[in-house]
Protein: GNAT family N-acetyltransferase
Amino acid sequence: MNTLHSASGPVDRTVVVTRVAEHQWHALEDDQVVGRGEAVRRPDGRLFVGVDSWHEPVFRKLAAAMLAELPRPLFTVVDEGDDDLTAAWLVAGFSIGRRERGYVLPTDPRVSGLASVGPPSGVRIVPAGAADTDALRALDSVIRAEIAATVGWQTMPVEVLHRPHGILAEDLPKFVVAAQGTEYVGLVRLVTATRQPRIGLLAVRADHRRRGIARALLAHVLGDLHVRGTAAAWAEINEANTAAAALVEGAAARHTSTNLELVHQ
Structure:
């Protein structure tokens, strides 16, 4: 929930903001709810806020009340094309933390150009649900350590959790893996429980990059979705991750939106 409607008309100064639950606020005017605020603790531990209001003054009152009562840092996400909402959060003290580019990826290999793409010599693709749990956890641990030591977890999609105990057995159906011998060297995480399948993470061990493994994993996942009758998948990529953007754009992905992640320190 994060909406600033463009209705006109005066807003009575008697609007009162009340905290109605631990993470919920209401703006009341003559006992009528004229705006709502909400804070959500996401799985990675970060606290995201949102405001739904018809009037900018109500938005400001709700935002001010929430900021006065919540710990820092706080985050919110807005569509880069929504100038009014972006400006409202910037006035409230938020700043741009990062940009996420949203892509629609065609699954048809004749469209993506991935029909003839396979893994490099000595590497095989382990399909979703067939990975060895221990080997996958070992790869997950290496990749997470590499991310933490380089770009940092703040650049990762929110659903890529930093689990203290690694990947759980119920997560296995979400992972397709690239294996070399008995070692796993790359993975892609695909969530299919939503209307449009979502690629949440595609990563290859640092010592196995630039061999075409990431492209082979992408080809496998998209090809499998195509066989199952799914026309497109979705991915969000940090604008700073030029390698990932080049990978999906090279597979005919279409950039459809850009979200701003705003932060208040």
Summary: The chain has two domains: 3-93, 102-257. The two ends are 21 Å apart (CA to CA).
